[in-house]
User: Which sequence fits this backbone?
């Protein structure tokens, strides 16, 4: 009998071999603890700190039978996230917490995403953030986001936001666009 087909990016086998940081993240997700790649946000990619965005998405969507994700969800700190994190139309079953990470591609993309957990981006660095039609229990905390002139778009987003701290650095020129956002 042939194994059931799954959509692209939904099996662990597609990501083999895993990078060292991805191995650490996979183990942490299975155990329900945070993956701490570094205690600070990386300034450059390395073999030891890089996590592919597609692999992060795979885990955020719940992994598979060979890569189960604990109900505590995905917590990643101190990683260089390689590639575009595309959560378009995704249904995330639990928390997705990303802290002290650098996204190398524009933008992390949360379009019409539904989450049962929290989406937390804490002290992360990204050139832009798209959240069109996002429905989630969300905490955006981008207090030290960089580089200057960043832009956050939350068009049509609905959330039970506990805090939005988009800009605390008054010397940086950043824009936050909120159209039809329900708080």
Assistant:
């Amino acid at each position: 009998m042939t194994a059931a087909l799954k959509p692209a990016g939904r099996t662990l086998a597609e990501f083999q071999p895993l990078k060292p940081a991805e191995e650490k993240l996979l183990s942490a997700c299975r155990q329900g603890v945070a993956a701490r790649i570094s205690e600070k946000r990386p300034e450059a990619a390395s073999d030891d700190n890089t996590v592919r965005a597609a692999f992060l998405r795979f885990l955020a969507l719940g992994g598979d039978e060979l890569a189960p994700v604990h109900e505590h969800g995905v917590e990643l700190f101190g990683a260089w996230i390689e590639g575009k994190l595309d959560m378009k139309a995704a249904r995330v079953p639990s928390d997705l917490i990303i802290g002290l990470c650098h996204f190398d591609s524009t933008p992390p993309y949360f379009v019409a995403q539904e989450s049962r957990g929290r989406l937390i981006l804490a002290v992360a660095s990204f050139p832009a953030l798209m959240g069109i039609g996002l429905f989630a229990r969300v905490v955006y905390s981008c207090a030290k986001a960089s580089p200057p002139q960043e832009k956050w778009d939350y068009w049509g987003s609905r959330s039970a936001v506990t805090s939005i701290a988009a800009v605390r650095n008054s010397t940086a020129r950043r824009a936050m666009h909120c159209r039809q956002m329900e708080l």
Notes: The longest helix spans residues 20-31. The first strand starts at residue 35 and ends at 36.
